[in-house]
Design a protein that fits this description.
This protein has helices at residues 67-73, 79-176, 183-212, 219-250, and strands at 11-13, 34-36, 57-59. By secondary structure, it is mainly alpha-helical. α3 (183-212) crosses α4 (219-250). This is Leucine-rich repeat-containing protein 59. InterPro entries: Leu-rich_rpt (IPR001611), Leu-rich_rpt_typical-subtyp (IPR003591), LRR-SigEffector_domain (IPR050715), LRR_dom_sf (IPR032675). Keywords: Leucine-rich repeat, Repeat.
């Protein structure tokens, strides 16, 4: 794992080692100029290989390389072909690196756009939920207002109906009673009756005094006693006459 930290290497011979792959950070060997990978089991090269900017010589013979990479590398049968292999492979790996960078950028851009889209959708969803809650709140408020108005109207209607029934109940009762007699007439009758009773009482008291006390010899009492006897006799005669008339009518 620490091999790629040997950044001062200039010439490296890894031929005939049955290597199946190179470290991913192989491109850290930036001072490498001569690289021999003859007779290994390499199929591809790491993308960081494009960073070997000082590479001048490369041998990839006798490796099961990818057909495209094998065509780019060509044969390394002499000095010239090995130098051309180094140049062409570097160019090819740089193109791959650029394409990967572009793909990575496109992926990042797509992820950013997707993230923006998700954020926009989330904001739209939140705005829709806020609008829905606001509408539900307004509807709830309107429903409560209608219920309050209905209860108020029902209460007013009930009070009106109760008042009407009370008026209707009182009206026949008041009409069925005879009108009371005038107060002044009733008061006058009572006054006359009281006066008559008072006079009668006075007369009786006077008669009793004239009959039972020593005042019966007084001239006033004598007159009253005579008048009393005359009235009493007249009443008896009147009663006797009525009895006679009644007997005659029966016969």
């Amino acid at each position: 794992s620490d091999f790629c930290s040997l950044m001062h290497l200039v010439k490296l011979d890894l031929s005939k080692n049955r290597l199946q792959q190179l470290p991913l950070d192989f491109g850290r060997l930036v001072n490498l100029q001569h690289l021999d990978l003859l007779n290994n089991r390499l199929v591809t090269l790491p993308v960081s290989f494009a960073q070997l900017k000082n590479l001048k010589w490369l041998d990839l013979k006798d490796n099961p390389l990818d057909p495209v990479l094998a065509k780019v590398a060509g044969d390394c049968l002499d000095e010239k072909q090995c130098k051309q292999a180094a140049v062409k492979v570097l160019q090819h790996m740089r193109a791959i690196q650029s394409e990967q960078d572009r793909q990575r950028q496109r992926k990042l851009q797509a992820e950013r756009e997707m993230e923006k889209k998700r954020e926009a959708e989330q904001r739209a969803k939140e705005a829709q939920e806020r609008e829905l809650r606001k509408r539900e709140k307004a509807e709830e408020k309107e429903r409560r207002r209608r219920e309050y108005d209905a209860q108020k109207a029902a209460k007013q209607e009930m009070e009106k109906k109760t008042k009407k029934e009370t008026v209707q109940t009182r009206k026949p009762a008041s009409s069925s009673r005879p009108p009371p007699p005038p107060r002044h007439k009733h008061s006058w009758s009572r006054s006359v009756l009281r006066v008559l009773l008072f006079v009668l009482l006075c007369v009786l008291c006077t008669l009793a005094a004239c009959k039972l006390t020593e005042l019966q010899r007084q001239p006033l009492c004598v007159s009253l006693n005579t008048l009393y006897e005359d009235v009493f006799a007249a009443l008896q005669n009147h009663k006797t006459l009525q009895n006679m008339l009644q007997q005659n009518s029966q016969q």
